[in-house]
Write a structure and sequence with these properties.
This protein is α+β, with helices and mostly antiparallel strands. It is about 25% helix and about 30% strand. The chain starts with 7 loop residues before the first helix and ends with a strand.
Length: about 210
């Protein structure tokens, strides 16, 4: 069982994360969390139970629908009851608290799910703000691809606020994490040529 402790790497980088978010609105960490936790999360992110991973949808409420040409992943929400998930969620809570202290963002909670894209799947350009419910402030993506190779695809393209120019392309290598302002940066997942695994998450303000 993983020891419940603060990630030394995240802890050392909270000041860096805060500074980058304040100046550019996004940053990429190459080794965001401890290697042992990353390995355990990668093991958890497998579609080995039909009752666990579900087809992802776009939209919400009555408008929710599945269009694989737009979004092609299957997802499973992290659970506090699972030991590995619990450690990750605790470390993201530490990050939430640290960013609130430095940037006064009013981040209230964090939600996240595992995401698996099979070969041939991607996610068209979009913002992480749900229509009619703009409470997502910061987006995070942690990559869990243990054997990712050049040519496997699945890179994340981050666009400028106008959605016209790619300002960053993130390779989905094991342990890499991107953090960015949810309402500012459109982004897209390129088509994968191999199975692509990650955790997508959002820090939110209190919608009430």
């Amino acid at each position: 069982m993983l020891a419940l402790c603060h990630s030394k790497i995240i802890s050392m980088n909270i000041d860096l994360i805060a500074t980058q978010l304040e100046t550019t609105g996004y940053l990429v960490l190459q080794q965001a969390l401890d290697a042992e936790l990353i390995t355990a999360l990668a093991t958890r992110c497998h579609d080995d139970d039909d009752n666990r991973f579900k087809t992802a949808h776009i939209g919400r409420g009555a408008d929710k629908q599945h269009i694989s040409s737009i979004r092609g992943d299957v997802i499973s929400w992290l659970e506090d009851e699972d030991a590995t998930d619990s450690v990750f969620l605790a470390q993201m809570e530490s990050l939430r608290s640290g960013l609130n202290q430095r940037l006064f963002l009013g981040l209230f909670d964090y939600e996240c799910h595992y995401a698996i894209y099979d070969a041939g799947m991607g996610y068209a350009k979009h913002l992480d703000v749900l229509q009619g419910k703009k409470n997502r402030i910061l987006s995070t993506v942690l990559y869990l691809n243990q054997d990712w190779q050049e040519g496997d695809g699945g890179e994340l393209d981050v666009y400028d606020a106008n959605g016209e120019t790619v300002i960053a392309t993130v390779q989905p290598r094991l342990g890499t994490m991107i953090i960015f302002l949810s309402e500012t940066f459109p982004h897209a997942v390129r088509l994968s040529n191999n199975t692509r695994r990650s955790i997508a998450g959002w820090f939110r303000v209190n919608g009430s």
